[in-house]
Structure formats: structure tokens, C-alpha cells
Amino acid sequence: MRVRKSVLIRERIEAEEAGEAAGPVTRAVAAAVFENPCAGGYVADLSPLFEMAGLLGERLAAEAVAALEGPAIGYGKGALVGMDGAMEHGAAVLHPTLGKPMRAAVGGGAALIPANTKVAALGATLDLPLGHKDEPWAFDYIDTVTVSVADAPRPGEIVLFVGLLDGPRPAARVGSGPRKS
Questions:
Q1: How far does the chain reach from its first CA to its final CA, in angstroms?
Q2: Do strands 3-15 and 21-35 pair parallel, antiparallel, or not at all (unpaired)?
Q3: The model's pTM
Q4: Which residues contact 171 (CB under 8 A, 6 or more apart)?
Q5: H or E element, residue 10
């Protein structure tokens, strides 16, 4: 596996939209830009990407946990695939093996890990979805952080993002779950 670079994005939110003190809430996203061994044409066996994601997941999740101020309570994952790759390459790094190291790093995680992927050009942004690690209906933790790496993905690369958060959206007030009919 050839990793070109790693990036750590840390965001600390201290006030809600009206400027009132809230939180603080920290969002941390660790990213790795790496060579896509499947770029350039159709590849039936995507298992090399599964293996790469498992290895990178341990590293990225540990970096994101270390960047939080409190315990990780929510998570999300995403991938930007360079133009010589395919959407399925993003799915291959996000789904079969990445969840296990992420859950290990945050001490569990019963809820599905929200994910997003897209094939994109250099410097593209990705809206990385976040959600509570144990309670999928914890509306206050359903969040998004927009991420990018200025010089990635190059056509034959993938950018893998692992995102964590240590609290709910500031001043969240939409309820704690679906309304009963």
C-alpha cells in the first residue's frame, strides 16, 4: 500500500448559530491519500481495497480519537475516488473491513456507521455524515462535516476519511427520535 499523505482535520465548536455559548463539541477527521490499485479499468476482485481499508482504519481511527477532547460518541466514514477509479472502489474501502477498527477505537458501536463516497476531481469536497455510535435514532448527533484535501484525489488515488465527534450538534432541538403516529 502506497500512502502519499495523511491529513488531520479538527474542528471545535464553541457557540451555536446565534452566538450563544454551547458545547464545546469536537469533530475530528483523519484522512489518508493512497494509490488506488484498481484504477484504470474494470477490476472484478476488489479485496486488495478491503485489506487496505482495514489497515488504514486502525491508524486513522486512532488519530481521530486522539484529536477529540472527550470520548468518541459518534462516527462516520467517507471516500473520494480519483477520476480513473469507480464508485465501487469507494464502497470497497468503506464497507467490508473499515467498521471493525473504527468500532474498536471508539469502544463499541452498535449503530450503522454513516458513509458517503463519490468519484471526484482534485480538491473536491465530501459531506461526511456523522451519527451516534450506539443509538441510530439519536437525532441530536446526526451531523455532517465537509472535508477535502486540496491536492487530492489525483486520478489514480483514493482519499479515505474517518470522522468522529464527542458531542451533539450545538443547541440541538429537534427531538430525541421519531415521532409516534
A1: 51
A2: antiparallel
A3: 0.95
A4: 16, 17, 18, 20, 22
A5: strand 3-15
Dihedral, 167, 172, 178, 181 alpha carbons, nearest 10? 160
The grid cell for 43 is 477490476
Phi, psi of 90 (to 5 degrees): -65, -45
Grid-cell match 458501536, residue found:
109
Rounded CA separation 178/36 (Å): 40
- Give, in order, the Cα–Cα distances in Å from 167 to each of 22, 110, 144, 154, 178: 11, 17, 13, 34, 20
CA gap 20, 159 in Å, rounded? 35
User: What is the tens place of the pLDDT at every residue in 99-140?
Assistant: 999 999 999 999 999 999 999 999 999 999 999 999 999 999
